[in-house]
Amino acid sequence: MSCFHKRPKRTKSEEQAFLEHLKKVAKENGKRLGLEGDSDLQFLLLGGKLVKVRSKSWKHGRYFKLEEDCQTFSHESKKAFKQNHTFSIDDIESVRKGRHSEGLKKYTDASVEDLCFSIIFKGRKKNLDLMAESPEDVNKWVSSLEKIINNMHNLSNQKKSEHWIFSCIRKADKNGDNMMTLKEVKHFLRQINVEVDDSYAADLFKKCDTSNSDTLEGEEIKHFYEMLTRREEIDVIYGKYAQTEGQMSDRDLLNFLLNEQREQATAEDAHRLIEKYEVDKTAKQNNCMTKDGFLMYLQQDDGCILNPAHRSVYQDMNQPLNHYYISSSHNTYLMADQLKGPSSTEAYIKALMKSCRCVELDCWDGPNGEPVIYHGHTLTSKVLFKDVIKAIKDYAFKTSQYPVILSLENHCTVEQQKLMARHLVFFLGDALVKKPLGDTMPTNFPSPEALKGKFLIKGKRLNKLDSIFTNNNVIEDGTVSEEDEAAECKENSQKEKPKKSNIKLDKELSDIVIYCKSVHFNSFEHARENQAFYEMSSFKESKAFNLAETSATAFMHHNMDKLSRIYPAGSRTDSSNYNPVPMWNVGCQIVALNFQTNSKEMHLNQGRFLMNGFCGYILKPEFQRNLSSQFNPNTLTEGSWLKKKIFHVMVISAQQLPKINKEKQKSIVDPLVKVEIHGVQADNASKETHHIENNGFNPMWNKKFQFDISVPELALVRFLLEDHDTASQNDFIGQYCLPLTSVQNGYRHVPVLNKRGDNISSASLFVHLMLLDAP
Predict the structure, then answer these.
(1) Which of 100, 330, 557, 691 is labelled catalytic?
(2) The whole model's pTM is what?
(3) CATH of domain 158-229
(4) N or C: which end of the chain has fewer CB within 10 A?
(5) β-bridge pairing 48-53 and 59-66
């Protein structure tokens, strides 16, 4: 292809020297990544020619390569005075081979399928659509990228930290001579988010400059790194329990696990941890754990705040579907706001890959007889219904095997509804539930386990479900009332309140609505006396919050028999979210949020669904499933839900927090930590530490808090890190949220997630936790 750009021309000797240099870089950085001398890493460092695709007419050749930090990808910009475009390996969500992005499907021909691939980024960053010269090149690029992404993901926290620091050292070494002057050391300290006075920097430099050469190199840089990353708090804890010739024997470690971590550990558990985390062979042979091994343990899953047993599916998945909270998205097709933002199949893929198990499809008549999905009465862009169904089919069960509910908001004419039904049946095939499970009329929902790998359609139905078994099925189209949310949407777009209208419903589309038939909600009493278990209502947030406040117990009983879906008010045109916690407190299952919006509410949602293998289904507490329960989250009375606890939290320190203002080299964060409890009204609380000035690298607080908890099974814990600002609102640094019942006691590291909910690989929070029965 003529639009490919070749590598810069060099003489034979220059080329040889360049390749030798890359081999050296691949060996040095590859060692830290566990890819020492790897040919795929060398391939990416060398780089190559690719065509960047933006439109039918904009297809330009660019030279892509991995920078020597093995963390940053770059390609040149053809605009005058523009620096090379760069992005971090950490920003990549996935790499897709073939024409699987909207851009490549739209702007390239099917004949070049095997020359295409896409780099998909986390968050709202646009995909990078690319073409290579040959299928072999595509395979090489995709496999090499996937290898380094997976390798970065699987690195231990200690290795990630080390890699991050050494990449900062490389950036600070301005002239690339592998030596650091005092000036470069000061620049490096700012890079890693710590501000120190000149005398401290000079003192640190002098201690490490054992050769008195006014530069640090080789072992001196290593010594500098070790001095910088020393964890005093770990030294103290290790020193207390390392009672065997300065090391921690298996008995010492067991003592630590029993007394400090409050684990029901055995000698075998101590041996397992030494075998798993100890880095020194001699210590391992002597059944001992060194300080390095101890730190490695604390930074891995066993030492994490999240109970490792909750990282996989551990709950009973054979209960009826309505006994679970179900991770749910509102207006799933939107990438941004509700008025003029883009609609995209990519939004469905991102939600499904986050284990969302209920997605929404707003369906309207489209051109050429093909139904489209978009936010009606607005300027949001449109996407073909069939393209969305194809994307859902391809990505629904990649992160979770449990059932996906397609919530249809149907505005189409009967002709296009027929096509909708046919697309659903054709593309979803046997995975689509088209009749009840079993040979008789059910009286309750099947379980998530029984519905593994299946799709359920939520929408209007012309008749009762039992007509399937009584030969009394409808044989033609009919009329039904429109969806409640559709009526509200119309109300928001018109000056006068319109009457709720009827729509004509196609029989084929009606027939595939089995367990999730949409009906209007009148009252809990009416629902109890007139609605079958499979007839469900959708509630606007204001209606739902009012019911949760005035009729909490009745709402909870309603949800023991039926499904409820809650959706954001139409006035939230900015795609903001409501607080989902009060809805879970009354047992609502489908609490739909705008997944595309990075908000506190989405952090709580991610925290709620973090446990049980992040499968998108969480079994509700027993008191929300038992009909004799009189639980009311607003006025707590005696009952099985009341399990009073005292939650002790000590915020000790943080490590390698990200810079907030990366544009300003001298901008250092002043971090503080907030600890929040979200649950029943009586348990809601928030407490915060003081801020530490000019230190995002290793701030230390040693601040103790105590929380009184009444209903631990409904409580979420959220750690929020902020950059203190005296003049304006504090800036967000990171956060982590999880259920209180998934918290491990003792000394624990807490991962730090960004606003999108993605892990900041080098950062962590170190805490001591104790959840005790109240006296």
Answers:
(1) 330
(2) 0.87
(3) 1.10.238.10
(4) C
(5) antiparallel
- What is the residue whose two structure tokens read 């096509």? 419
Q: Which two tokens stand for residue 430?
A: 């046997």
CATH topology of domain 645-773: Immunoglobulin-like (2.60.40)
- Residues contributing to the annotated binding site: 52-79, 331, 360, 362, 409, 458, 460, 538, 565, 668, 670, 694, 723, 725
232-303 falls under which CATH superfamily? EF-hand (1.10.238.10)
Q: What is the tens place of the pLDDT at every residue in 724-742?
A: 998 889 999 999 999 999 9
**Domain 158-229 identical in fold to domain 232-303:** yes
Place of tokens 């949310």: 485
Helices assigned H by DSSP within 242-321:
250-259, 267-277, 281-285, 291-299
* DSSP structural state of residue 512: T
Q: Looking at 100, 163, 323, 375, which residue is catalytic? A: 375
Q: Provide the annotated binding site for substrate.
A: 52-79, 458, 460, 538, 565
Structure tokens at 645: 């606890």
Class of domain 321-470+507-624: alpha beta
Single-letter code of the amino acid located at 465: L
**Longest pairwise C-alpha distance within the chain:** 95
Let me know: does 711 contact 683? Beta carbons within 8 Å. Answer: yes
330 is catalytic: yes
Which residue matches tokens 């504090």?
A: 730
Instruction: Convert the pLDDT of each residue in 475-484 to its tens digit.
Output: 677 888 877 6
User: Which tokens belong to 460?
Assistant: 């209007």
At 365, the amino acid letter reads D
Q: How far from chain centre, in Å, is Cα 391?
A: 19
Contact between 654 and 763 under an 8 Å Cβ cutoff? The reply is yes
Which of 113-127, 480-494, 573-587 is least confident? 480-494
CA distance 693 to 723: 9
What pLDDT score does 737 carry?
98
Per-residue model confidence (pLDDT) at position 228: 74
Average pLDDT over residues 358-374: 95
Each domain of the chain, given as residue ranges in start order, spans 12-154, 158-229, 232-303, 321-470+507-624, 645-773
* Residue 467 Rama label (left phi>0; alpha psi -120 to 50; beta): alpha
User: Which run of H or E residues covers position 206?
Assistant: helix 198-208
> Closest Cα to residue 141, out of 123, 114, 167?
114
